[in-house]
Amino acid sequence: MSTQVIDLFPTPFMRVGGALPRGLVDALAAHFSAQAVQDNSSSPHLSHTRMLTPADSPLLVDAAGLITPHLGAYGELLFGERLGWSLKEMWVNVLDAGGRQAMHNHANSFISGVVYLTPTHPSAQTVFMKSPGGHDFAFKNDHAGVRMGPYNADKWVSPAPEPGDLVLFPSYLMHAVPPNEGARRITLALNAIPNRLDSWGYAIRFAG
């Protein structure tokens, strides 16, 4: 007799260590942290830049050139084909001590990502969650003796990042940042779209 557990329809999460070199990381943090003047609606200690594109800065051009090949590799996991990808928008987040980012996902994109530009305190590592359920009654087995794993957990704390690390995930995936108990945390967030999707000859193309 044999027993096999199969990961059915898993969600890919890609981590690229050192995707951006330290010199570029430091330059991005220094240049764009001063432009993060838009207050977050749910946390007074979190601010953002406006939405940016690579054309807005030579620094972003360099960053996009290093990030885009990873979008192709990750997109192949999602869609089964190596497609062309464009960075639809990029923005910098500045999270000071006491700040947090509420649970959210990203609309109007297919791949989202984060480049960590500064060290991250363990309290403020990005957390990913299952989407909230419907309005039906739910029963859970949730107590001190439960061993949490990928099949029964409601959330997952991403690995501790280093400056320059890139993570990519499907844009629909819910995520948040708990209250930051450490020093200022600066990240570069991004959304990406493919050049087209083809469903048996019915193609949708994205321009921008």
UniProtKB/TrEMBL annotation:
InterPro entries: CHP02466 (IPR012668)
SUPFAM superfamilies, alphabetized: Clavaminate synthase-like
Source domain of life: Bacteria
Name of this protein: 2OG-Fe(II) oxygenase
Organism listed in the record: Pseudaquabacterium inlustre
